Amino acid sequence: MDSEKRCMGCGVVLQDENVLQEGYTSSLENELCQRCFRMKNYGEYQVVTKSNDEYIDILREVGKTKDLVLYITDLLNLEKNIEQIRSIIPNKMILVLNKIDVFPKSVKEEKLKAYFESVNVHFEEIIVISTAKNYNIDYLLKRIKYFQTSRNVYVVGHTNAGKSSLINKLIKNYSDKTQELTMSPLPSTTLSTITIEINDYLTLIDTPGLVDSGSILNCVDSKMVKKISPKEEIKPRTFQLKKNQSIVIENFMRIDYIEGEKNSFTLYLSNDLKVKRLFNIIRNNDLKDKSKVTCSIKYDEDLVINGLGFIKIVNKGILDIYLDSSVDVFTRKSLI
Prior knowledge:
Elements: H1 34-42, H2 52-63, E1 68-74, H3 83-88, E2 93-98, H4 109-117, E3 125-128, H5 137-147, E4 152-157, H6 163-174, E5 194-197, E6 203-206, H7 222-228, E7 237-241, E8 245-249, E9 253-259, E10 263-268, E11 275-278, E12 291-297, E13 301-305, E14 309-313, E15 317-323, E16 329-333
Parallel strand pairs: 1-2, 1-4, 2-3, 4-6
Antiparallel strand pairs: 5-6, 7-10, 8-9, 8-11, 9-15, 10-14, 12-15, 13-14, 13-16
């Protein structure tokens, strides 16, 4: 067992010697490091850079156990390679699709589940939840009990998928503990594994989220991060575009429709984001100083902007996308 005292918010070892290093606290009597304390009480955030290699090593250690694993993913920002974590961890695994509350109510759970069942990756079960609305949490707990191989259940996923939110909800609903994990809409909040005893039969072990280097959250300021992260049900915005028309999202992304028949673009993004249409891309050079990616769209595909959301496109066509070069953009079969 680790005899060093750890922060109850992020799991890092507490230290009172170097204010510039992670884990600093003014007193080792405190339960939170300075970073978590300031995040929790003042909404401040300090970036901590750790490599995914460290996180993957932790996941490999999880893979050496025979314990049940919960893989949490954000429905609005599904990973491009959902099989990555599965390939590292061979354990029994439940795929938990979080944040259904921000999806339009017209989207049926069965369709979402069918999409993932069509992907050639095995999960014991796929469960749709909302930690914000306490939706399906009771059912998830029942299925955890059904698939458990020991008291320990690991929680894994990418940053900002809602792992800490789910654990805090399970603590609130089913435990008499007062411990609460640090939550933030920014990456790298949990820095080390954190063990939380929920009750006599369940101990959750939270792991650091894999950092997605291609996420737009890594290249906008904290104010914009909060704007990008939806807090309520998304109202899809549909634009009918002709060739040589464009969509501009805030001041960071432009999509030019350069080839194809009249097409339908439905945006599944935070309602707080400003979106406008340009009727003549030749006369308007807004955001053309950004990096350009040309993308070919097939029938009924989504254009996914990592960390931002996705755009459902009906017909085939060719797009020029202007965006920060570090942001990953890809296409997939339509999710909904």
